[in-house]
Fold this sequence. Notes:
Blueprint: E1 2-5, H1 15-26, H2 32-43, E2 48-51, H3 58-68, E3 73-77, H4 84-88, E4 89-91, H5 93-99, E5 106-108, H6 110-117, E6 120-124, H7 131-143, E7 145-148, E8 152-155, E9 161-166, H8 179-182, E10 186-189, H9 195-206, H10 213-223, E11 230-232, H11 236-252, H12 260-270, E12 276-277, H13 286-304
Parallel strand pairs: 2-9, 2-10, 3-6, 6-9
Antiparallel strand pairs: 1-3, 4-5, 7-8, 11-12
Amino acid sequence: MSAKTKPASKKPRSEREVVARVRAEHRIVGREHETRQLCAALSAGRNVLIEGPVGVGKTVLARAVAGVLGRKVIRVDGDSRFTEQKLTGWFDPSLVLKKGYSKDTFVPGPLVEAMQDGSILFINELNRMPEAVQNVLLPAIDESIVNVPQYGTLRAVPGFLVVATQNPREFVATSHLSEALMDRLEWVMLNYQNFEEEREIAKRASGFGEEPYLSWAIGLARLTRSHPKIKRGASVRAAIAILQILAAKLRTGDKGMIDEGDFREAARLALPTRIELNTGELDGTYDQQVEFVLKELWEQLKKNS
């Protein structure tokens, strides 16, 4: 399915203003350099690939910058089952029986819709798309055209661009983008943010800033990214989840307060689905492996505190 984002009402006059409005209107913490990069590329009419781990805000930043620049966004989510027809469009079978193949019986897909509108086609996790779907994008990006069987050649109006995201190339369940496609995209890299920025993000998103739990949640999530028994660490989303669980516990718990035990229980709920273990280095069932790693993480967190 595709989704649209309404453009902002007033176009900014400088990159500095874009950064300021992205922070003010979309509550984005940090990311000044990446915001300027994305603004420069879009202002120059360049197509962009934003790469980074899960949970670093690739989609949020892309939609925020596009909105501040006054650009409408049509969104598509990457899926290995996505077809070329879903991207370009299809003919309504019932109408074709009555009228034949024509503009009146054609239902535009998100690519054709963005080309006709002069909008930004935003593709979340492009490297999850099948190669055939990726290939459809090449003439659209390179020559602003797309060929639709039974319809003909469609040409994009000025303003059409593609902005895509992808997780790091070593991630499982993703494919590599072709050299031809990569050669037509500018590259913006989003890495994990520093402790203070992640702390501020978690505090805003969870509405819970009680210490030491706020710092513990960020510290624990960050430790997962360097632990030798963890293949893929957690993003700030894990810390947000921990804090939201603690906030609910504080409101509804019988004790009227929270403690270290509550924090550890919240971590047991939030972390397992957001990390991937190097199971070849561990013994026992998966839940035993998770418990062992969480114990090590907790000991390291307390040691660092």
